[in-house]
Design brief:
By secondary structure, the protein is mainly α. Among the domains are: 208 residues, Tetratricopeptide repeat domain (Serine Threonine Protein Phosphatase 5, Tetratricopeptide repeat, Alpha Horseshoe), CATH 1.25.40.10; 57 residues, no CATH class. It is 77% helix and 0% strand. The protein is built from 23 helices and no strands.
């Protein structure tokens, strides 16, 4: 069951997709989910629809911050998780649908993403599997099982270079991992065979010289062909969308489609123009402003790429564009903070930028506000602690790290990072016994985390 792009999807399914987009823009989340899921039920390989569904799930979760809703969402997912797990192999499409139900209320549920990915691979939907596995690996980069599954999905999608990077990363972490060494070697051979065309030698056709001579040209032509086909499809859809908008200029959803297609075609000027018009007539929101911001940043990137690297003042020109880009980012997010003072996600982005620019007092003031956001609470507290560390207020930093630990249930990567950083701070403050207790807490669940094992071993060796 190959995954399909929008141009390969039947009209009735695309209508459902567009209805879902319209509902989500109005923040009618449940209707949006309903339309998206109906479209995916008819076309499980409609990957763009699944991307839109996931973005909507995350957007909804960002606005659902009450403790009660979080508890209900988490508790209600347990039977659905069991249901999905049972149907992963026998009925993978049913398992995917069940996982999407879970993600409607809990888009960061790692088990739902795990089983969705397994089911997607069984249903021959590698891009869908990659979508969930990349999410889980981003949240838990040291999880070996997730990394292995993601590499498998990349291979199924013929993204051999990406799989190779994962195997190499795992091997760098453990040079004695013989399983990874074998997989890396096998992948290299597979990559050489399929990309180099050596299989043609088996029946006596071709020669090594021909292969070596034509390999680079073949790859370049194939990539160019794919890009041309993709651009042609986008431009065809764009022409159709513009014609429809001319017939019905007041159709805001059609205007949004035109803007989206201009963005896909990398015509950022026109995309920004259409998004801007939608904002002016009140058909946009904070999310659309983020899109406009991203496109303007891409404009800066285009200008940088277009610079002549042979020019004697290339470095100065690039530096100037980078400076303008950074200034735009901070000014734009500040403008959005002023416009949406209650949107703590925007305020958090602003705080992070201030922190990176070492504008510590301003960043601290913003993090003190964003700690009230459910999804950014712990990150805000941790960043406050790091600001106190950077400004020499170690006792304040310790208090904030301890506050962050109180918020964490169970031992995940974030908690291990907090414990490790706090241990280092306490050791610097001459509180070695307190520091080692935090390292021991990590050691009990993950002996391979950073250099925890060597630090704990050194502690006990010193005691002897």
């Amino acid at each position: 069951m190959p995954e399909k792009n929008t141009s390969e999807i039947p009209r009735d399914v695309r209508d459902l997709f567009e209805k879902g987009n319209a509902a989500v823009q109005r923040e009618n989340w449940e209707y949006g989910f309903l339309f998206y899921l109906q479209a995916l039920q008819k076309e499980p390989g409609f990957f763009e629809c699944r991307q839109a569904l996931r973005a909507a799930q995350i957007a909804k979760a960002g606005r659902t911050t009450s403790f009660f809703k979080k508890i209900v969402g988490t508790a209600g997912s347990s039977p659905l998780i069991a249901k999905a797990q049972l149907s992963v192999r026998k009925s993978p499409l049913d398992a995917i649908a069940t996982c999407e139900q879970i993600l409607n209320t809990d888009p960061n549920n790692s088990l739902a993403h795990k089983f969705l990915a397994e089911a997607a691979l069984n249903a021959d939907l590698p891009k869908t599997a990659i979508f969930s596995l990349e999410h889980n690996r981003k949240n838990n980069p040291d999880d070996r099982a997730t990394a292995m599954a993601l590499a498998t999905a990349y291979i199924a999608n013929k993204a051999y270079s990406r799989a190779e990077l994962i195997y190499q990363d795992l091997l760098n972490k453990d040079r004695n991992d013989s399983e990874i060494a074998v997989l890396l070697k096998d992948l290299s051979a597979k990559k050489t065979l399929e990309e180099g065309g050596y299989e043609s030698l088996a029946d006596g056709k071709g020669s090594y010289r021909d292969i070596l001579k034509n390999k680079e040209e073949a790859i370049a032509l194939e990539q160019e062909s794919k890009q041309v086909r993709s651009i042609e499809q986008t431009l065809k859809l764009l022409d159709e969308a513009v014609d429809k908008l001319r017939e019905d200029p007041s159709n805001f959803q059609q205007a949004r489609t035109v803007a989206d297609l201009y963005a896909q075609a990398k015509d950022y000027d026109k995309a920004i123009k259409y998004y801007g018009m939608l904002m002016e007539v009140g058909a946009g929101d904070a999310n659309m402003e983020r899109i406009i911001n991203d496109l303007k940043l891409k404009q800066f990137d285009q200008q940088i790429i277009a610079l002549d690297k042979e020019s004697p003042d290339y470095a100065q020109q690039r530096e100037e564009f980078e400076r303008q880009k950074a200034e735009y980012q901070i000014e734009d997010v500040k403008r959005r903070v002023d416009k949406y003072p209650n949107d703590l996600l925007i305020r958090y982005d602003y705080a992070v930028m201030l922190y990176k620019l070492a504008r510590y007092n301003e960043a601290l003031m913003e993090f003190q506000k964003t700690r009230n956001h459910g999804n950014r609470r712990v990150a805000s507290i941790v960043n406050m602690a790091k600001i106190f560390m950077a400004t020499g207020k170690d006792d304040f930093a310790v208090s904030r790290f301890e506050d962050a630990l109180k918020e964490k249930q169970g031992m995940d990567e974030e908690k291990k990072d907090i414990l490790y950083t706090l241990a280092g701070l306490l050791e610097k403050m001459g509180k070695g016994e307190a520091a080692i207790e935090h390292l021991k807490a990590i050691y009990e669940v993950d002996i391979g985390f950073r250099d925890v094992a060597s630090k704990v071993d050194a502690y006990y060796a010193a005691k002897k």
